[in-house]
Amino acid sequence: MSTATNREFDCYCFLCCGPLGSSYLQVGSSDPDDLTNRRGRVETQRLALERGDELDSDDSSHESDYGSNDDESQEEEGGREEGDESESEDEDQDNHDEGNYQDPEHHSYDLDLATSDRTSWLRRVRVPPLTHTPLASQSSTLTLPRAFISGPATYEDMGRIWASPEPGEPHQASTGDNCFDCYTSFNDDEIGFPFHDHCMTVLQKALQWYYEYTPTKQERRLSSSPHLDLDALYEAASRLTGWSRAQLDLNYGEISGAGECWDFISEEEFSYLLPHL
Questions:
Q1: Are the C-beta atoms of residues 125 and 20 closer than 8 Å to each other?
Q2: pLDDT tens digit sequence for 94-108
Q3: What pTM does this model have?
Q4: pLDDT above 80 for 127
Q5: Is 163 helix (H, G, I), strand (E, B) or coil?
Q6: Which one of 127, 194, 242, 243 counts the least CB within 10 Å of its CB?
Q7: How many CA atoms lie within 13 A of 115 on its CB side?
Q8: CA neighbor of 127 nearest in space, from 236, 203, 200
Q9: Residue 111 in contact with residue 28, Cβ under 8 Å?
């Protein structure tokens, strides 16, 4: 189910695969009965995870969402032959899945979780594009590709992102706003890989840790001055642009919302909320 509003397709953070903004946030009903059903469904999923059971995001145990007529079901079952029963069960399951697919409560977030202070981080986006810096020691026709981090950026649509200049950044091509193509070239603009400010902070925090090896053991240590090689990061991202034009060809974990447009799947609020360091 797409939640797009006059959008062709979304692109996502190359570090976390989350959406580039929160303006299209969909929250569920505040009705007490709807909240009870939603949170009961989430609790069922949580317990299934603890038991190691296979997850069913549209758990059929919450029949109160869609209701059933037991008397009619019993009458129908009495007149069925064995083959008809199997066919009807498949049809009932299809109808149930279709109902879940259309139900807005299955495609929205818990309004008490997806608050503005926990989702505003998604709007703080930048992009590391390349610029071509002339080689000082060579002919002026030769250039060296260099990655840099732009100023604040805004995802437009159709794979395009607008970035403002970053004050003091020596490698940016101009002092005006620049348009970049996300992941692959759609519009003949320079390619960039969008990310959230907070995700880059998490990456830099992770890079503070390193292993020191001795002949007898290895120890995990914390660096006081981690180095982030933007050129290497850009090159790595370039090599991971595969089938998708909206994200890297990586396993981002249990995140199901990153479709053609972001889908606010109930029970997956964790993919939208501010991660803690």
A1: yes
A2: 444 444 556 888 899
A3: 0.72
A4: yes
A5: strand
A6: 243
A7: 4
A8: 200
A9: yes
